[in-house]
From TrEMBL:
<dbReference type="InterPro" id="IPR032809">
    <property type="entry name" value="Put_HupE_UreJ"/>
</dbReference>
<keyword id="KW-1133">Transmembrane helix</keyword>
<protein>
    <recommendedName>
        <fullName>HupE / UreJ protein</fullName>
    </recommendedName>
</protein>
<dbReference type="Pfam" id="PF13795">
    <property type="entry name" value="HupE_UreJ_2"/>
</dbReference>
<feature type="transmembrane region" description="Helical">
    <location>
        <begin position="43"/>
        <end position="65"/>
    </location>
</feature>
<keyword id="KW-0812">Transmembrane</keyword>
<keyword id="KW-0472">Membrane</keyword>
<feature type="transmembrane region" description="Helical">
    <location>
        <begin position="111"/>
        <end position="131"/>
    </location>
</feature>
<feature type="transmembrane region" description="Helical">
    <location>
        <begin position="20"/>
        <end position="36"/>
    </location>
</feature>
<feature type="transmembrane region" description="Helical">
    <location>
        <begin position="179"/>
        <end position="199"/>
    </location>
</feature>
<feature type="transmembrane region" description="Helical">
    <location>
        <begin position="71"/>
        <end position="90"/>
    </location>
</feature>
<feature type="transmembrane region" description="Helical">
    <location>
        <begin position="143"/>
        <end position="167"/>
    </location>
</feature>
Amino acid sequence: MDDFLIYLGLGFDHITDPRGYDHILFVVALCAVYTLQQWRQVLILVTAFTIGHSITLALATLQVIHYKTALIELLIPITILVTAITNFFFQEPKSWLTTDKPPKRSWRYGLALLFGLIHGMGFSNYLRSLLGREAEIIKPLLAFNIGLEIGQLFIVALILGVAFVVIELGKTSRLRWTLVISGIVAGMALALIFDNAYLKELLG
């Protein structure tokens, strides 16, 4: 049980570590168009992302699939940028004035699932470095994944809490909140992309 708790804590620390803020940025981008009252939609969205990264985290850690680490490190900020950009088109301008409920966009859940597959490979890089030559990896894999989810839910709760304060108590429009947060995330994602060593190598 001690090892289980250790890996659970490592999973939580990994996704919430501000020094490796790329995964935090992605979760922020996912949640930027929602309010606290829409927690059910956020839960579905996060579940789709969870399913995606759980699949590739397991397959990559068990060495069922292989990939180029440098490519994944480039694709992760690209997923952040794309998610942030879609936020600008999430809802037609008029609907912001007439309803609190955004239109249903099932494609958004599919996008979260797809991008989760990419992030899962990024998580596996860290987990494999922790495991080293350890023979039993199923229990650490499960514990690490649960830790990731707890950390992810913590970030989601924090984002929705801040959104509630800014929108409901601060009387800021949802549109302005979404545009500002998504713009900041997009800018940070672009910085990560252009600073990526693999991209610089590709561009010569």
